[in-house]
Every structure is written in structure tokens, then in C-alpha cells.
Input
Amino acid sequence: MSTGRPGRCPGCRKQARRVHSSYQRSLDDRPLGLRRVVVRLWVRRYFCDRKWCSRRTFVEQVPGLTERHRRSSTGLTGWLRSIAVELGGRPAARLCRRLRLAAGRTRLLRLLTAPPVQGRAPRVLGVDEFAFRKGCTYGTVLVDVEAGRVVDVLPDRTSKTFAAWLKAHPGAEIICRDRATTYTKAVKEAAPDALEVADRWHLLQNLSAAVEKTCHQHRDCLRKHAEQEPGATMPEPVPMELPVPELPRTQIIERTRHRYEDIHRLVEKGWTISAIARRLNLDRKTVRRFRDTALDQLLVSARDRRPNGVLEPFKTYLNARFTETQGQVSGTRLFQEIH
Output
């Protein structure tokens, strides 16, 4: 039971004098070994006697143990926040299950707070759009180009929102952006003295698009010129020794091998499917499939989920052939060669 001094109202910070009631509060604390720790604490609710304060009653908080609207102690909340910062949502939730911490990915993500935004914009400000949900909702990310860190994230990609941010955060001397007119309008309105430059990625993308468009427009001339050259036909490539086809060492392949070995080792010891599922934190259907299916079939199904991994042993050969022919070899020809 809490026996400290009366708490202060979170609205007006006045120390309370009258007790309204008391109740029992349950808090999850950091586990002790493999055992869950629950703190049951009696706390008091107080009256706020100031008439102009919007709060009539409030609950006391125990320093170093409780926080408002939290069902976990401050120590456990600090643990969960650190895990969420390092791993994110789903990976952090999987680690919490291993540590006997009751926390899902949504709870972990709610613990993350946005870093404070400085009052002035960085000297070199990078701006670009990104997708919250591709094809539906887009936002704007602002980056300090010199420091290489995110400054702020805007909820949309409109010029009005970006212009309002520039007015509230002056100081940008150089603005690095793509060639969209939306951001140009905002810069001219809110930061007319800033120098606008195109970022390197969009410059290369625009250059490649221009070259492709030019070649497409003059394809008849290029084809006629190539046919008129005496040595236009490509010589037959010198056969190269191909590597022995084998499954690529991808993460999913290795995980399938290890899971197959673990399950069959426990099966040989006489473990039941339910016991194996609890031990390895798997579904019973998954355990039964690994028990009854050959390893080769499991590896084939795992490989099918990663189709790009099939070309891994032939990348060196394909790159060499593409360089030799200066890009004039077709994908069908390369496929026939490695096949």
C-alpha cells in the first residue's frame, strides 16, 4: 500500500489534502527468471480543491514504479521501449515472448515517441515522398543531408503542408529534392532564397530515361546502321565451365534445415507433436509436416518462396557474359546457356 505524501494534481500541480477513495492496482514488473512478477498496489485517489482546475479527482503515482495509464512498472516499460527501439515491431514481439514478457507489436510500437524537432531547419534539407500505403496514402520525409538523419515526417505530400513546415522552421540554405512541381511551389512560397538542387538518384533516373527514350526514337536508324556494318554478327561465345547447381545458402534454406533436424531429433527421443510444438514454439501442423515430409521436398518448397535465389550460383557467369557482349545478349540466350 502506498504510504507516501499526498500527490500533486497533474493539471494545476497543487498538493492534495482530501482523500476521495482507494483501489488496488496491478502492475506487471520485470520477470524474475522464468516467473512472471505482478505488483499489487493500493493507491489513493484525491480531490483537487482548486475550482478553476479541470480535474476533480486524480490518482497518486509512486515515483520509480507507476505512470499514468500504464499497466506495467516504469522499469518494465523502459525494457520494452529499448527493445522496440532496437528491433521494431514483430521482431521485438518475438524476443519478448522468449523473455517471458507479455507485449505485442502494437504495444511496443506505441512506446516509441518521435524525437524532438529542432526549431530551425538544417542547412542542407533533403525532401522526398514515401508511401505509408503504396497507391493509397503518401507522406513526406525531411532529411538532414549533411548529418544523414531524418528531421521530420509530414502526414502528406502537398505543397501547403511543406510550405507551412518551412515557415515554422527557417534556416534551410539548400533544398535537395526530386523534380516534382509540388515541392517547388512550396519552396518558392516559403523559402525563396534557398538554392534548389536535384538529388543524385533522380538525376541518374532522368538520365537513363532520356537515353532510353532517345534510343527508342532512333531505333530504325540504329538497326539499319548495325546491319550495314561488316562485323555486325556476334561471334559464338566461348563455352565457360558452369558451377555445379546447388541450393543457395539463403536464410530460409538454413532455417528449414535446422528446423528439420530439431524436430526429428526430438521425434527420435519419443516426444509427442504437442510437446515438440511447445518446445520449439511452432504450430502442431508445422511439426507434423516436418515429421512426415522428406527434407528435399521441404527445401524445394522453401526455395520456391525465394525465386531470385535460384540464380545465385550463376551470377558471376551472367555478369561476365553481359559485360562481354556489352549488353547485346538476350535473356533467352543466357537462360539456354546456364540451362
Notes: The CA atoms of residues 260 and 290 lie 6 Å apart.
